[in-house]
Amino acid sequence: MEGLGVLEEMGELTRRGETFALATVVWRQGPSSSQAGSRAIITGDGELHGWIGGACAEPVVIREAVHALTEGTSRLLLLGTPEQFGQSVPEGMTVVPISCQSEGALQVYIEPVLPVPHLVIVGESPMTHTLAALAAALGWRAELIAGQDFLGNGREDEPRTDERSIVVVATQGHDDEDVLKRALAARPVYVGLVGSRRRGGTVLGYLAEQGVPQDQLDQVRVPAGLDLGKTTHQEIAVAILAELVQLRASGAFGRAKVPRQARPQATDPVCGMTVTAEVSNRPLTHDGSTYYFCCTACHRTFSENPDAYVKKETRC
User: What's the Cα-to-Cα distance from 117 to each of 122, 163, 248, 293, rounded to whole Å?
Assistant: First the structure.
């Protein structure tokens, strides 16, 4: 995958609400198998789609991309040997030593692409339309769904919510209990019920009698939104969105879940390069530990005098 194929894949992952990182080569020093402008997508489980460079660069980029996704921050990498750059490395740039036999170097920008909030608003009041419009103005993915449509009733195209969704129930007495029960079953990151505390207590009490676990009921915010006093329907929408923005900014929704990296990595004990711990990278076992190597030369050097490099690795 390269060129437009990478961009098309980005669009598809974004539409599905998936987390990924985009790595772009912004500078190269030949000889190098990559070119300025080369791009690759790295998924949360460490799979790379596209082309960012050969065996020297790829494991490092995957490792740093997974870190960027975990932390939610971008980073600019300079891949090469320290001797190539000396004191000329700008502040804020991360230098990752790699011992590439081609003696090339790369500068790679890694940007985490985290899914926008998915807001599901159930109801048909003027407030729900205002809330959907306000959320869309923030760039959120907002869905406005009637109560019966949310319940689905066996339809193949029934709405889908998951643990990343934010659900606001504003059905105003029409199937409140059934809608809220269905919303809780998806264990979304937030569930709010629009209504008075008294009405909310009645709905939650009924669901408790129906066997809905208490830990799920405790997650429901009643009434949804910040307490702004006596407000209009439109102002209630503002209060709800304000609460959601406040919770998101505080980290209450948590960062996007990033799966554990699928391919374990290791450090070549000879050159210090990051490599994937797999059969293709020439595993060698010494004193009960298995080591992996970027190339045949490093493998041969280690095998001739392994204790020297094991001690070196221990000192580091």
Answer: 16, 11, 9, 42
